[in-house]
Specification:
Elements: H1 3-15, H2 24-31, H3 36-44, E1 48-52, E2 58-61, E3 66-70, H4 75-91, E4 98-101, E5 104-107, H5 109-120, H6 123-132, H7 142-150, H8 159-165
Parallel strand pairs: 1-3
Antiparallel strand pairs: 2-3, 4-5
Helix pairs in contact: 1-5, 3-6, 4-5, 6-7
Length: 185
């Protein structure tokens, strides 16, 4: 199920904020709707994702084909930022949050964020993005739960456990060292 099929009418309502004939980004989104193949295209084009030590948000560097995401944010915000930067990676320069075209400056941030949030809300898209960039799942809502199930990464997550013991059940995957875990149980 493509993004266009999922919410195309609502998306077009949002685009009414922008002059239909003058928005290159709107035209790009309409002619090239986001799909799971979009994630594969981004990866095929050589995009990498790095978590880095900065306060918040993310950044997509088109020239270096690098998406940078803050390592100081919670999982929902992490996934939201990743999806936002994936929109930039897929649609290119016309999707910049502030884009200068022949008719002047366009603020695309609301459109980019709208697309990113709708992409994140579709479990198949979220799972595809997390798989493609090899990012572990973390459950914080229904979409993230379904995405983790699609990836066969079932996580039993209880916020109070993480707060008290500083781990989640998912932290005990086969890649982790489990020495000393018995003290918690």
């Amino acid at each position: 199920m493509g993004l266009a099929n999922l919410n195309y009418i609502d998306l077009m309502r949002e685009f009414e904020l922008i002059d239909k004939d003058k928005s290159e980004f709107k035209n790009e989104v309409c002619s090239k709707p986001f799909s799971i193949d979009s994630v594969n295209e981004i990866l095929k084009n050589g995009y990498k994702l790095k978590f880095q030590n900065f306060e918040s948000g993310g950044f997509c560097n088109f020239e270096k084909k690098l998406i940078r995401i803050s390592d100081k944010i919670e999982y929902f915000e992490r996934d939201d930022n990743i999806c936002h930067e994936v929109v930039h990676a897929f649609y290119g320069f016309v999707s910049w949050d502030v884009y200068m075209d022949l008719d002047g400056c366009r603020n695309n941030k609301i459109i980019t964020e709208l697309l990113a949030r709708r992409i994140r809300a579709v479990p198949e898209y979220l799972a595809s993005i997390l798989d493609g960039f090899k990012i572990p799942s973390h459950i914080y809502d229904k979409s993230s739960l379904l995405a983790s199930q699609l990836r066969n990464e079932i996580q039993l997550y209880f916020p109070f456990v993480e707060k008290i013991f500083h781990f989640t059940i998912m932290d005990f995957s086969k890649e982790k060292n489990h020495s000393g875990i018995e003290e918690y149980f």
